[in-house]
Amino acid sequence: MDDFNTSENSNEVESATFFHAGSFKISNATARNWKRLNTHLESRLTTRANKRKSSKRILPVEYISHSENISFLQSLLDLIDENHWDIFAVIYTMAETLLKDANLFSQEHIQKVLHDYNEIKPITALNKIQIPKNEFDILGLVYQSYLQEGKKNIIGSYYTPKSIVENMIREFDFSKNQTFLDPCCGSGAFLLNINVQNPNLIFGCDQDKIAVLIAKINLLLKYKNFEFIPQIYHLDFLQGNSLFSQQEIFGKKFDYIATNPPWGAMDNSYCEEFEITSKETFSCFFVKAFSQLKKDGIIRFLFPEAILNVKVHQDIRKFILNHTCLSSITIYGNSFSGVVTKYVDIECKNTPAQETIEVFQNNEKRIVKVKTFTTTENYVFNLLSNFDAEIVCVAKEKGHYFLNDSIWALGIVTGGNHDKLKDEWFQGSEKIYTGKEIQAYLLKPAKKYIIYNRGELQQVAKDEIYRAKEKIVYKFISKKLVFAYDNSQSLFLNSANILIPNVPHMSIKTVMAFLNSSLFQFLYLKLFGGIKILKGNLMQLPFPEISEKDDKTLAKFVDEILNGNDSKISEIDNFIFAFYKLNQEQINYIKETVYGNFN
């Protein structure tokens, strides 16, 4: 349906094996760790999936056309709850009322549509309510408002705001009777907004039977001068569940396909045929839908922003680059009510690939070369402008070494911070740092203490890593690279990751200087982005070959910073800018990109 379904597994996933418990999914590694620590499975699942069990309702304000209708929605929800009415019966009763108000109810084609729902008993008490006439989808709005947060999260039912729908379909041309499909249509947001005169050119399907009813009624009301049966089918687009739908939907190809698919990992053998190893729902929908796009046709999907750079989604990025003509990406600045994830829409064509795409963001358009997406091994859609690409190329041309042969480790996963961490030193304990204490180059004083008993901790690295003579640590949850130096053989929690680098001709302090520099901040931001600093991305940063003299100079700067001379941070930046022979315009752009208004 035209919806959102956020997934706990939206970040980088190294292993795609999962353990299922009821309707929840956790990694096998997590299940083993919980078992080893005698963690009660249902308790942990309840904690991590509390959103899926939420009974809270969230009004989809971005889906409301007129704010004065909020009071109607709230009053209707109260009535439904007080009388324990079935929501299907509520929607059907309101549909009958709308059809009667439009003088359509008695028409033969209307009765044929309603005949499929003759088992539903209308609620007579609702016949007298005054339904707002100024909402483009009042039935869908009521349904969305009724659904509890937990139900929405499970079925992925978050409908698309009208403004986004209009933007996604604005250039679709139906002057030559082109056909349109929405493979997860919900209540019909896309179907209602396309500029087509003949409703028989419109096709849709959804596995939510209430949403399908709403979509049918919406089309009957919009095209009230046509005698037609809406071609909206109750089925799972990825599987199909009737011989009739096999021919009506799967036996056709379409000129235009647009939708907002469900989000979240799933088990589906169809995806395996196209190497969608993540089994991510929106990726499977895209691959299946593209197979039904006509030559020269256009497909446009709304995706979570993570599709641009998160490693687990490299499969769909690779499919798009290898099998479609990627034509545009639009980046939106907001999220939906009840969903924190931001989103983008991606447009592809069934034509030969082109060298550039259009990127729309904040009412601006820029042209990006498609070949920049192959500069990283995970096909990251980094959306580099020509100026961005120039700077990245300068860094890559000097890049000779990478962090592949370095030692990496996660901080400690305690299995229960509340019980195992204390705010003050106690007998047998030692200090342990968290990500909060990591700043560029230096560690703030530790605020937590722990007894380091490896057998009672959920996940620990090797002792020799924690106790290394020197190591650098970095914030895991961060939009920027933040690396600090440690030579105290201290412990770190899993909000911090550990790196003991192995880069030829560079000391550990020099490697840290490059990683904290404005240039490497810029490279990471432009190539990968995101809110997590991932090992796989760090391993793709190109380190140059430097002289022994340069190594000593940078290491000395770092020593002075560690001794309290913060002015050397800017000297390190200037040294690295000069090393790469960047001009002042490039330097200013890097600083503005990384730090904002740096003057």
Automatic annotation (TrEMBL):
It catalyses: a 2'-deoxyadenosine in DNA + S-adenosyl-L-methionine = an N(6)-methyl-2'-deoxyadenosine in DNA + S-adenosyl-L-homocysteine + H(+). Residues 431-542 form the TaqI-like C-terminal specificity domain. It comes from the Bacteria. It is an enzyme of class 2 (transferase). The keyword Methyltransferase applies. Keywords: Endonuclease, Hydrolase, Methyltransferase, Nuclease, Restriction system, Transferase. One of its GO terms (molecular function) is endonuclease activity. The keyword DNA-binding does not apply. InterPro entries: DNA_methylase_A-5, DNA_methylase_N6_adenine_CS, N4_N6_ade-DNA_methylase, SAM-dependent_MTases_sf, TaqI_C. PROSITE patterns: N6_MTASE (PS00092). Its EC number is 2.1.1.72. Gene3D superfamilies: Vaccinia Virus protein VP39 (3.40.50.150). Residues 137-329 form the DNA methylase adenine-specific domain. SUPFAM superfamilies: S-adenosyl-L-methionine-dependent methyltransferases. Belongs to the N(4)/N(6)-methyltransferase family. This is site-specific DNA-methyltransferase (adenine-specific). It comes from Hallerella porci.
